[in-house]
Structures are given as C-alpha cells and as structure tokens.
C-alpha cells in the first residue's frame, strides 16, 4: 500500500519542480509506522526530505471515540502544521484507520501542487477495479485484513465509494500481529498476516470463489 501511494506522490512531484529536494510530511498515529515507511522511500524516492509528525494518542483515541469532529480537527491541525509551519510540499498519512479525517484534510489542503494522500488509496483503487462487477455478472470478493481493528470500520466505506457501491467486501481482523509489530518483530507480524490470508484464500477456494 505504501509503495503504491509513494509512487503516485513521487510522480506528482517530478511533474512539478522535480523530485529532489521535496520535503514530505509523514503523519503517523503509531510508533511502528515510522520505521515501516522508510524502506518505501529508500526504494522509490531516496532524494525526498522526510518530516515525521506523530501523535500516537490518535490510535488509542479512535478506538474509543471513532472518527468524530474532534478527530477531524486534530488531523487538520497536523496537516496545517506540515504545510504552513514545517514547509512541507506534500503530506502522506501512514495509518489507514482514519479515512474520513484524512479526507477532511484533503478537501481543505490538497491541490494539484500540494498532494495529500492516504497510505492505501492507490491500492484500494486497484482492488476496487479488480472486484468491480463486469456487465451483469458478479465481481470478485475483496478480502480486507487489518491488524488494527478500527481500520475495519473505515476501509469498507472507502472501497465502496471508490468502486461505486456493490462490492463484495469481507473484513478480517488479524489478532496478535500488531503486538508483534509493536514489539519490534516485523517478520513475525508479516508471518501472522500471511497465515491469516492463506487460511481465508483456502476457505474461499473450497467454496469455488476467487479472492
């Protein structure tokens, strides 16, 4: 997801005044997001100057309050700081549980010359395209796996918006994966997610479905 989002942002910057020297704000809601975002930039956009902004209380609070007006204001404050105070040329949010709050920032701050991206929007567009029904037939189901449970309230609505409705979306929470990531064991986190995905793919195959 991050690679797809970053590829889109880097392309936009290159069309502007060149990718080198661009200052990019990465806005995080979890500590592990910082380390996990660095390889994508190293691979696709090593020239970018990164500014990491983090409020790790966001992840705790969204589980309690959901995405409300107060959450929108907090995201807007972070986005405005990135643009007006830190001198950033673009914003990439790194947590996918805050869809509507990120969209509020996009409505206010995003322009052709100032990209504001969700971490997963390019991936969701691709998934929606693959799953969209062809003609009168039924589309392929989309399996959504999340290690952070509040994400499962946001992503289905976003996918339906992108796909124009009618998508067959199946959500799955993956327990223990986030604990592994918070403990610094990214390989174990990936292994847990992969096992969950393999299990659901096998179950779908038994029903004759193609996830």
What does this structure look like?
The structure is a single chain. This protein is an alpha/beta fold and 211 residues long. It is built from nine helices and six strands; from the N terminus they run H-E-H-E-H-H-E-H-E-H-E-H-E-H-H. It has helices spanning 2-16, 32-44, 57-65, 69-85, 99-109, 121-131, 151-163, 177-182, 186-206; strands at residues 23-28, 49-54, 90-93, 116-117, 142-146, 169-173. The strands form two sheets. It has a four-stranded parallel β-sheet, with helices on both faces. Helix 4 crosses helix 5 (99-109) and helix 6 crosses helix 7 (151-163). The chain is globular and about 55 Å long. The two termini are 18 Å apart. 32% of the residues are buried. The model has no long low-confidence stretch (mean pLDDT 89).
Helicity, in percent? Answer: 40-55%
Rg over C-alpha atoms, rounded to the nearest angstrom: 18 Å
Number of strands: 6
Low-pLDDT segments: none
| H and E string | HEHEHHEHEHEHEHH
Q: How is the biggest beta sheet arranged?
A: 4 strands, parallel
First-to-last CA distance: 18 Å
List the strand order in the largest sheet: 2-1-3-4
Overview features:
211 residues; four-stranded parallel sheet; 9 helices; globular; alpha/beta; two-stranded parallel ribbon
């Amino acid at each position: 997801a991050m690679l797809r989002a970053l590829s889109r942002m880097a392309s936009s910057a290159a069309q502007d005044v060149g990718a080198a020297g661009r200052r990019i704000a990465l806005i995080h809601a979890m500590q592990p997001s910082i380390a996990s975002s660095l390889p994508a930039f190293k691979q696709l956009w090593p020239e970018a100057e990164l500014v990491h902004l983090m409020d790790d209380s966001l992840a705790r609070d969204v589980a309690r309050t959901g995405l409300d007006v107060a959450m929108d204001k907090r995201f807007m404050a972070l986005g405005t700081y990135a643009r007006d105070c830190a001198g950033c040329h673009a914003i990439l949010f790194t947590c996918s549980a805050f869809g509507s709050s990120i969209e509020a920032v996009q409505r206010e701050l995003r322009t052709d010359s100032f990209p504001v991206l969700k971490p997963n929007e390019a991936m969701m567009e691709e998934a929606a395209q693959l799953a969209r029904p062809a003609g009168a037939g039924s589309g392929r189901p989309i399996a959504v796996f999340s290690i952070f449970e509040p994400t499962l309230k946001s992503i289905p609505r976003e996918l339906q918006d992108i796909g124009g409705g009618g998508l067959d979306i199946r959500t799955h929470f993956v327990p223990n994966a986030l604990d592994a990531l918070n403990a610094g064991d990214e390989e174990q986190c990936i292994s847990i997610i992969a096992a969950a995905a393999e299990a659901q793919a096998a179950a779908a195959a038994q029903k004759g479905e193609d996830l």
